[in-house]
């Protein structure tokens, strides 16, 4: 069954909750459009301009232009309030499985949920797929061949994630994949909380683990605990806000969930060895030298 091209324009709502075995190639444009993806479907998202607002029962976030999301968890709602363009390829696991052909000697590993910067190759293939799905006569190879190339590029893009599978618990590859997907769900929830505050009980519940089992499993796979990962993300965001924006330190303190500005400044200097004033002064000098 060939992929189905479906444009989604301003003020349109598309609900794909009726199950089928087709891949859907979606081209969103304009503003105030919405799309509903059923649970357990695999979807690939690429904002071309502006961003896509994504929502699950657990959280809400913005996927920015230039980022790539592979989603395969709960039901997902997407839309754009601003006048932008985006592409998505979505379908059931069975629809994707027809196009996933591992290289000789490699195990048959499914696509895993991930969020990262989109490479030039993945952007090129996703845009090409949208064009060919809309006009199959433009590609002598056929639409299915372009989907095959996109799947191969996505699998290669996720090679670092696949390398984590031997660290996961489970006697079979399928069980280890399930374990990794649970931990990636936890990691996604941590990333979505910019203030660095994590509720360990809530994270454990999302993975159907006890808190102790979550800490142990997460550390075995990623080399750090969920709390350590959250603290690292908060430190990275603090550096980015101090160095690359003019946001007042008091507002950064509130945005990152610190109790007071003095507590934030002490933590910042302890982590980076510099005060916020020194970092901003150095950033200002760097911009002047570049100018």
UniProtKB/TrEMBL annotation:
<dbReference type="InterPro" id="IPR018060">
    <property type="entry name" value="HTH_AraC"/>
</dbReference>
<dbReference type="InterPro" id="IPR009057">
    <property type="entry name" value="Homeodomain-like_sf"/>
</dbReference>
<dbReference type="InterPro" id="IPR050204">
    <property type="entry name" value="AraC_XylS_family_regulators"/>
</dbReference>
<feature type="domain" description="HTH araC/xylS-type">
    <location>
        <begin position="184"/>
        <end position="282"/>
    </location>
</feature>
<keyword id="KW-0804">Transcription</keyword>
<keyword id="KW-0238">DNA-binding</keyword>
<keyword id="KW-0805">Transcription regulation</keyword>
<dbReference type="Pfam" id="PF12833">
    <property type="entry name" value="HTH_18"/>
</dbReference>
<protein>
    <submittedName>
        <fullName>Helix-turn-helix transcriptional regulator</fullName>
    </submittedName>
</protein>
